[in-house]
Amino acid sequence: MNLQLLISLSSSSETPTNSLHPPSLPFHLVEEILCRLPVKHLIQLRCICKSWNSLISHDLNFAKKQLRLSTFNHDFQHLNISCTNSSSELLQFDFSISSIFTSASTTNQSPPFTCRRDYDLEVSTCDGILCVGIKGCLPFLYNPSIKKSKTLPPFKITTTTEHRPFSTLYTLVYHGVTNKYKIIALTLYLNNKSEVNVHTLGTDYWRKIDDFPCHSLACISPGIFVSDTVNWLLYDNCSYSMVIVSLDLKKESYQKLLEPLGSCVSFGALRGCLSVVSNSDMFSDVWIMNEYGNENSWTILLRVPHMRDFGFIGYQRVLYISEDKQVLMEFISSGKFSLVIYDSINNTFKIPTIIQNNNNDKMAPPQVYVKSLISTFF
């Protein structure tokens, strides 16, 4: 339905009705229409009348319904790129996934987006909210759609001469069992010890979850949230191998999962499943765990040949797979991270022309997310 028509048909008690006005829609039908619109339009429509503003800005059930309907809509998917520049300012770039696919140029251009990857900056996403961790600063939550943020409380990190922290990775999750948002913090120490703390939004404290079962100084990425578990891919200094450590949020217990055979270089989630990328000399395999927790269910989802241009070194992560089998990926080009689109049907590559960036900037791993109106804890 055209927005102007919707506005004219949704005359409420706030707008007098007379013979010159078209018949008004019941408010519950207006709500059903509005919840199917993208967040960008809803933000603009808050000024139409008080009832619309109240619904869009303050109704949690409406926000959840709009998010649920948006999650599987290709047109509502976005890519967030967060960087810090030479002045230590945090920069955020946002692109719709559909625009990235449609504006891609051919491979005769240099990659337009190259940036230093730096583990001092990490971003995780959940329900349209970004959880940003910057070394030396308190982590904070930010909903870029509604421009609201919240700094998280500090938690105590045990520091001694022999027990010094190396890095902390934050993961924002929504725990459906408790209907709460939580932040899971994994701290790696220089003596190869690790510990996990959890913060439930709405409280002012962190709790430690003991007995982390891995001694590691190398974690591939922030935790990946799948099937009510948070998962990390780490190098285990005891077994001298890569291992997935899983935290069950309901039981608050850990288990180890084996990765598929191969040299895994990245860790993430695709189609609601754990996913890894393993590189060989000629191609990269994208694996998914079809049945969570079943190590025998690892399956190759797709095989991507290596590019021969741009000083290609290897693929890092698969960010998104479209309905027509186009694959948005990160790759390393001459020591820097770039984006590429692989058409798995026609076996061709394209470089998205999105933004030019300063090579001195430090970039967090790009995140695919859906915009939302969630604001209950800001």
From TrEMBL:
SMART domains in UniProt: FBOX
Signal peptide as annotated in the record: none
UniProt cross-references to PROSITE patterns, sorted A to Z: FBOX
Domain of life: Eukaryota
Pfam families assigned to the protein according to its UniProt record, in alphabetical order: F-box
Domain F-box, residue spans: 19-65
PANTHER family membership: BNACNNG10540D PROTEIN, F-BOX DOMAIN-CONTAINING PROTEIN
NCBIfam families assigned: F_box_assoc_1
Name this polypeptide is given: F-box protein interaction domain protein
Organism annotation: Medicago truncatula (Barrel medic)
Native organism taxonomy: Eukaryota, Viridiplantae, Streptophyta, Embryophyta, Tracheophyta
